[in-house]
Structures are given as structure tokens and as C-alpha cells.
Specification:
44% of the residues lie in helices and 17% in strands. The chain is built from 15 helices and 15 strands. Strands 3-13-12-11-10-9-5-4 form an eight-stranded parallel beta sheet. It has a three-stranded antiparallel beta sheet with strand order 6-7-8. Helix 6 packs across helix 7, helix 10 runs antiparallel to helix 15 and helix 11 runs antiparallel to helix 14. It is globular, with a radius of gyration of 20 Å.
């Protein structure tokens, strides 16, 4: 369990992504009904728009969004890497141009923490230097050095503002090089954080490499602190990474795929646009207790999707988020009963 100012989070847990202070198409009330415990926001995006001047009026994201359960905010390091036009990266921080209007900004470790204090998130992430796949060993080495140096500065600012009671997580980098991953993990543990994240995965590497690096890195981190694998994943990813010792996950897959008509079920995924669902009076998944399955047929969901009705996004997303939260609940129950190995086997046998 993870204790935060806005409640206890039972782990393993999946965090729906609310990058812009909203999980796309869903209200906070719908998230709660779907079983969501914690959501993720993003420092980079919320700093650029609407900005701390606005969010300060509401004393943070909880008041701004009407979500009063825990919130984790990413530091913005990945978004600077993936979205912004970088102009300079050095020990001082990252200079970049906004993807919105081209304006120039400097994101330092200190500023990343200060913005997250403004957001008043329950869990803040240190600024890290995320690199692409593939990258050279020298690029990965520089990434580890910058990430460790920035983490120390993030921790210093966090210590100076301890009254806020926000938790702070360090991020492990090192590319796909195990010796660098070990160095990064050991340095983060030496600095000391409330939890540790494995970053730099799901950046285009093959699945077998992703699992190999996770399997190597997770045991290096202390079992007494939550272990967060960032940016993953599919239902299969979650089951496998839990088996390797991971506790926390986030990914846009359930929401993005919902908007593209892909629905998750215990038997695998279905594409609601498929013509075979035109006359289908059944719910997406028989026995599913989500709002969508209790009230709507596959035929209706297909109609909404084909007609490009906005309700399609909402109903599909409700189902997918419910599927993910239910999957994690079943995993937690299996672990408590010491039946996870059986659960994992049954999970794979059920997928067509």
C-alpha cells in the first residue's frame, strides 16, 4: 500500500493518464465509479497551459480538477524529449521551445519540483534525461550522470519544502545497458526517495528487451519502496511486470485505444468497428459490471463509433478503464491469496 495525503493506494496499481488535468472524455465521477485510485498529470503540459498562475487559484490540481484522490505528476522530462524542440541539454537543465507556440523555456531540476509543488501533486517525479532507442552507450552514460545530478538537486528543493508533504520519486535511466542501469539504481537509492521509477522503457525497444531490462533493474531497488515502471502498457505487460516485482504503471493505451475503437476483454481485444458487431445485441463483455456493458450493446457502440459521435469516446473509455482497474484488483487479490502464478497462467489461457 502507498500512503498519500489524499488517500491510500493499493498496489499493484494502474494510473490512467490525465496529461492535461483530465483523463480524456471522462469526468472524475466516472473515474471513481470505474475503480480508479490515482491518476497521472504532467508537469510540462500544465506548466505551459494553463500555467501555475491559474492552478494556484485552486491551491493545486485537486481543486482545479475536482479530483480529490491521489495524483502523480511526471516531471516533464519525457515530454521535453518527445514533444518539444530541444535547443540545449546540460547540467543546468533543459532549454526547449514549446510545442504550442514556440516560446523558449528553461526547465531545471529546481523548477520541475517547484512546478509540481504548485500542482500540489501527491507524488512528484524528479527531472530525468530520457533518451531514444537505440542510443549509444556513451549517450546512456551521459543520461545517467545528468539524471543523478538533477535528482540530487530535486531532493534538495523537496527537503526545503517538506512542509508540503508531497512524496518524491527518483527515476532510473541507463538505456538498454545493464551496467548503467545498476549504477543509476544504486545512485538513486543512495540519494534516497519515497519510491523509484524505471524510466526509459517503452521508447521503441522490442518487448523482450523491455522485459529483460525490467527484470534486471527491479530487484536492484529496495522492496520496501514502491517500484514504478513508467509508460507501460498492455494488459500482458502489466501481468508480466507484476511478476517481476513492479508496483505502479501508467500508459495511454486504454484511453487512446478506446478512442480508436479497440476494447479490452478477458478474451483479448476487439475492434468495435468490425462489421460482425452491426447486429450484435450483447455487451462488450458478458459479465462486465462497467456502466457501458450494463447499458449498451456492441451494435450501439459500433454505430456511435462509425458515426464519429463523441459519446463513443466516453463509453469505450469507461469500459477500458474499468477493465484495467478490475485486472489490477484481481492481481492484488491473487497476490494476497498467494495464487498469482495460477492467475497468470489462467490469464494467458483465457486470451484467444
Amino acid at each position: 500500500m502507498l500512503h498519500t495525503r489524499h488517500g491510500i493506494v493499493e498496489t499493484p496499481v494502474f494510473m490512467p493518464v490525465g496529461t492535461l488535468a483530465t483523463v480524456k472524455s471522462l469526468s472524475p465521477e466516472e473515474l471513481l465509479k470505474a475503480g480508479t485510485q490515482i491518476i497521472l498529470g504532467n508537469t510540462y503540459h500544465l506548466y505551459l497551459r494553463p500555467g501555475c498562475e491559474v492552478i494556484n487559484l485552486f491551491s493545486g490540481l485537486h481543486g482545479f480538477t475536482n479530483w480529490h484522490r491521489p495524483i502523480l505528476t511526471d516531471s516533464g522530462g519525457f515530454q521535453v524529449f518527445s514533444l518539444a524542440k530541444l535547443t540545449k541539454i546540460n547540467e543546468e537543465g533543459v532549454t526547449f521551445q514549446s510545442h504550442i507556440d514556440g516560446s523558449k523555456h528553461l526547465l531545471t531540476p529546481e523548477k520541475a519540483v517547484e512546478i509540481q509543488i504548485c500542482l500540489n501533486s501527491d507524488i512528484m517525479m524528479c527531472l530525468d534525461n530520457c533518451i531514444a532507442y537505440p542510443s549509444s552507450k556513451n549517450e546512456a552514460k551521459v543520461s545517467v550522470e545528468l539524471t543523478s545530478a538533477w535528482a540530487k538537486r530535486c531532493k534538495k528543493v523537496w527537503n526545503e519544502n517538506k512542509g508540503a508533504q508531497n512524496l518524491l520519486f527518483g527515476i532510473i535511466q541507463g538505456g538498454m545497458f545493464k551496467d548503467l542501469r545498476k549504477i543509476s539504481a544504486e545512485e538513486m537509492v543512495e540519494i534516497g526517495f519515497n519510491g523509484y521509477a524505471v524510466g526509459g522503457l517503452s521508447v521503441g525497444e522490442p518487448k523482450d528487451i523491455m522485459f529483460d531490462i525490467a527484470e534486471f533493474t527491479l530487484p536492484v531497488l529496495p522492496d520496501t519502496k514502491p517500484k514504478y515502471v513508467m509508460g507501460t502498457g498492455t494488459p500482458k505487460d502489466l501481468v508480466e511486470l507484476v511478476s517481476l516485482g513492479a508496483d505502479m504503471f501508467d500508459c495511454v493505451i486504454p484511453t487512446r485505444n478506446a478512442r480508436n475503437g479497440q476494447m479490452f476483454t478477458k478474451s483479448g481485444t476487439i475492434n468495435i468497428s468490425n462489421s460482425r458487431f452491426r447486429y450484435d445485441t450483447d455487451p462488450v463483455e458478458e459479465g462486465c459490471t462497467c456502466y457501458t456493458c450494463r447499458n449498451y450493446s456492441r451494435a450501439y457502440l459500433r454505430h456511435l463509433y462509425m458515426a464519429k459521435e463523441l459519446l463513443s469516446y466516453r463509453l469505450n473509455t469507461i469500459h477500458n478503464i474499468h477493465y484495467y482497474t478490475s485486472l489490477m484488483k484481481k492481481i492484488r487479490e491473487a497476490i494476497l491469496k498467494d495464487e498469482f502464478a495460477t492467475f497468470r497462467k489462467d490469464f494467458y489461457n483465457s486470451i484467444k
